[in-house]
Amino acid sequence: MKAPFSTYLNSISGAMKELVELLRPDYDYVSVLSTDSPGLTLVCSRSGRQASHSTMTTERGNVVRVCRDGLYSEYAFNDFDRDDIPALAGRIRKELDAQLELLRLTGTQVYETGVLADEEKELFVEKETEVLPEKAVVREIMELLEEITRKGLEASEEIVETILRAQSTHISKMFITPNRYLRQSYVYSEAMSAVVAARDGRNRMAYEVVSGCRGPEMFRGLLDKVDRAADMAVKMLDAEPVPAGTYDIITAPDVTGLIAHEAFGHGVEMDMFVKHRAIAADHMGQRVGSDLVTMHEGALCDESVTAYAFDDEGTLAGDVTEIDRGILKAGICDALAAERLGIRPTGNGKRQNFAHKAYTRMTNTVFDSGSDSLDDMIASIEHGYLLQGMDSGMEDPKHWGIQCIVSRGYEILNGRLTGKMVAPVVLTGFVPDLLKSVSMASTDRVIEGNGGCGKGHKEWVKVADGGPYLKARARLG
Amino acid sequence: MINKITDALRASDAWAWELTDTTEKDWEFYFIRHRLDQNRAVETRHTSVTVYRALEEGFTGSAQMEIPQGSTDEEIRSCISQLLTEAEFVKNPEFSLHGPEDMEKEDDRDAESGGTGAAGEGEADADVFRIAKDFIETMDSLPETDTEYMNSYEIFVRDITRHYMNSRGVDLTENYPQSTLELVVNARKGDKEIELYRLPSFGTCDAAELKSYVTDLFRYGRDRLEAGPTPAMGTADLMLSTEDSCRIYEYFLSQMNAANIYRKFSDWEIGRSIDPEEEMREKLTIRQVRYLPNSPENHSFDSQGGPEADRVLLEENVPRRFWGGRQYCSYLGIEDGSIVYNYQVEGGSVSEEELRSGDYLEVVEFSSFDVDPLTGDMAGEIRLGYWHCGDQEKTVTGGSVSGNVRELMAGLSFSGETRQFGTALVPAVTLLRNVTVTGIEDN
Prior knowledge:
Helix content of chain A is 21%, strand content 38%. By secondary structure, chain A is of the alpha+beta class. Chain B has helices at residues 2-11, 73-87, 128-139, 207-225, 245-255, 258-262, 326-331, 352-355, 405-408, and strands spanning 16-32, 35-54, 59-67, 91-93, 148-166, 171-189, 192-198, 201-202, 228-229, 234-240, 286-289, 311-315, 318-319, 342-345, 360-366, 370-371, 377-389, 392-397, 400-404, 413-414, 418-421, 424-427, 430-438.
């Protein structure tokens, strides 16, 4: 079935068009983004259950963007009388004028920006799904989660908790300018089974995930995965820290994705070019990885949790080849940064929600596959580690440092996995050194989009990343 | 709309209910260097409802939803009906919500001598115009030079009104200011330029505090330009003197969270020392405090109407009281527990000067210093550190620190002097011994 576009947004589309027309005489540019995205979160564990209709991306609200004399201003709201749009327009003018008065009092100079293009376009997209989160039968899903939870808890006496978190969101967004009228509707879902094992006061956690541009029907996929999470959590109780040093490594697809995300995801967000915060701006056309490194970024790259048709600034989704066989080719860009840099936006202007500013943000960030088998990759290593389990990462676009915290590593000695596990593992290094060391890539590829991505330490949005198994050389601690 | 919702809740079959209505007015200003990139105003209202239904003896079910603004009576009734249906399948052991009598309880008497303020003290007027003006003017008067300066910054000023009601008759409202700054500092020497990043939060603008904070960043920036590679030192004593030290103490707080106790993620017990072999160098005392000067989170009640108060949580290494949301506190028999927003770690027995007398690696800038609240694993890539070895001080960058707080806590020391970082009043200097340091230069 098609995920139906929000009836609420359809019902206010006339009012929002009226708002654009009322503000138009006062400003050089006017747009409105309206959102209505209901969702469902269910949590099931040994110690409790929760049901909520909030997810990371549930929202209903509007944001008006205007430009006058080179200054862009925004007003976000979710409480208004749709029968009195002139009053709303007056409220917006009054609030933004009050801010301008403050800026006048403080003698603030403006970073002037040109007027955004407003090319004519009408678009209506409804993507396929089986189940809508707002219509999902909570009883059925909770019974499934209970079954998975039981399976996890029964796997070992050392498992103290299994937490199932399943979320689904039905995104509807509408973008209006004098010349553009874009509407889209799709459902994405994600779920995680986190298994916690404990011994003598020491805890270890392992998890498995599912995610994609589909409905809650995908949660069933965790039923076959929870055993693996339980097995890993128990084995991690015996894991020792990795001896600090530089090793040959193989990154599992989730760790490959983390590297893609932190290295040349954040590294080529071009709003950072405007602020001179990204070293990549000085290395376009230069080698930053081995010939095996090709990286794509864009909402069109995969039917993932962030597979939208247009971004939060009304730019159509894209697919950018950031690195082509080791050569840095392009970055990604929101509309305002593109205007400042004199290039076209790439469909990467995203907001945490309607109340937040749009920044250049990632969508799907993925390494291309290669031609090697995982067995051959393992056989090629004398002493190293297969790294699996993405915990967290941190970008450093200014200096190309990278920090990836990986939940575990499997020791490889003389071309074989020894069965010994190290945990946790901190991978650090200089991004081009890491990518230039990539010497093998597997034929398969996995992309997942669980959790959220911040810019710095805020502005959380959905992203997905992944790739194949990669062999490289890296510093571990 | 609140009256419509409460009327519908009272007329429903709900066994109990909670309603939270949050109104925010935010003013935001984004700067590139000192030129305005964008200004934003946000006026939002969010009304959230949780309904509970009685299930079999000793159990209850619940479900939660935000009611969209402008909903009609019929739409509100439909939302509540849906939640009641769903609640049947969300079964938990029964617990009672806070009642009006809970707000009348006094602060923990043991905390009175160490507490930092009384309930109701110190709330500031949340005037976004005035607060934003103070921030803009302060940021415009920083001691910048040609080689140390602001790359960019973002100012967020919020005027928040929070209204909590429940079916037991609790009806509480509070209004407070909250401010956050994103600060990106550059330092430059010739063609080499580095940056430092911070995201501090405050109540309102304290110009002197902010200038002092950014001046430290300028100094760190200058030093990072001169930093050499971190030696492969194997292990070292790690000193933390920035807000990263809070991550260490938050691990101890997480061990006393009622949900973590109930889930068996923590084996700490009330009255049983966390250091039975008495191996720890310092005795740790941590308090929940209702008020800290200019904290962004000075609340009189938590998200479920639990009263905020000054309470001793950990006293000289002995847990005295667990904390958390109503549900898990109730399961543990804690009737007057609440969520910790502000906390205070009592200073140690030695001075900062004494702690700085040995060899140590002081890291003031990480990519991100993380401590896993579940496992105690900690890690961070070093962006700027000072390696003090004998009489030498060497600025270093690169490599990482790692370890496990639980395993390293015997060697934890902290200064008698304290310093506030947003919601935390903590020792000015924290030292962890024998932390693994992965360098990028062989010794």
